[in-house]
Structure to design on (246 residues):
């Protein structure tokens, strides 16, 4: 079923007014470059670089100059993505996040920019996993950071998100490209959105990703990957998230 941008999609109210720029905290993070004043750093983040993941130093930031206007608008809308349930590690992906608010944000931005948005598809990867609660997660965290830098260098990753493990060690993570990606751990959660599915391949072929996958085999008691497609209809008037089919 297609999701209409109404205030009662999924039975949850959507705010009647939606900002057309990301929250201030998303725009004023440290870019990790020596010699920049706070004001200069903020200007760089606002004009060219975007915090699009839990990591806020410069190698992890999204370079907006590599994107089309429509991709920039979606990337900015995704800065407000947040879970709407504590059970995101095990709940259906479409019900786990505030997609109504994200798409309302996007629709408002499209209207503000007088852009004609044609139907577009984005690739989502969702990684659900379980790690024994007694596991030292510091090594996994470093591997994740290295893999994320590789993905940002390869281009096309519009959003990366991961959650906090539940009491059983389950989590989820996700990332998005003009096609998306998500990861869950026990109970962690990772989520990502990619611009295109083709962008995900080079972004996951580096040594950092290979090391992370080796650790997954050794340290995770359970894991699986979902591939999904975010379909945004004309001017973001309708949307849906469906299984990805080759």
């Amino acid at each position: 079923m297609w999701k209409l941008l109404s205030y009662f999609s999924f039975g949850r109210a959507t705010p009647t007014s939606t900002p057309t720029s990301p929250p201030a905290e998303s725009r004023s993070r440290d870019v990790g470059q020596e010699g920049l004043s706070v004001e200069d750093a903020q200007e760089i983040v606002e004009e060219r670089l975007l915090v699009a993941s839990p990591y806020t130093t410069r190698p992890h930031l999204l370079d907006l100059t590599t994107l089309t206007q429509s991709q920039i608008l979606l990337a900015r809308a995704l800065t407000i993505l947040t879970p709407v349930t504590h059970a995101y590690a095990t709940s259906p992906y479409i019900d786990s996040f505030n997609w109504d608010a994200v798409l309302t944000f996007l629709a408002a931005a499209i209207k503000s920019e007088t852009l004609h948005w044609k139907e577009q598809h984005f690739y989502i990867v969702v990684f659900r996993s379980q790690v024994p609660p007694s596991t030292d997660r510091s090594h996994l965290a470093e591997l994740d950071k290295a893999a994320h830098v590789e993905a940002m260098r390869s281009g096309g990753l519009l959003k990366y998100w991961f959650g906090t493990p539940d009491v059983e060690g389950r989590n989820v993570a996700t990332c998005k490209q003009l096609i998306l990606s998500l990861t869950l751990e026990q109970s962690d959660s990772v989520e990502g959105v990619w611009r295109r599915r083709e962008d995900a391949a080079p972004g996951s072929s580096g040594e950092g990703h290979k090391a992370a996958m080796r650790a997954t085999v050794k340290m995770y008691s359970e894991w699986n990957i979902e591939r999904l497609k975010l379909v945004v209809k004309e001017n973001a008037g309708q949307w849906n998230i469906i299984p990805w089919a080759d």
In short: The two ends are 21 Å apart (CA to CA). The CA atoms of residues 229 and 242 lie 5 Å apart. Residues 138-154 form the longest helix (17 residues).
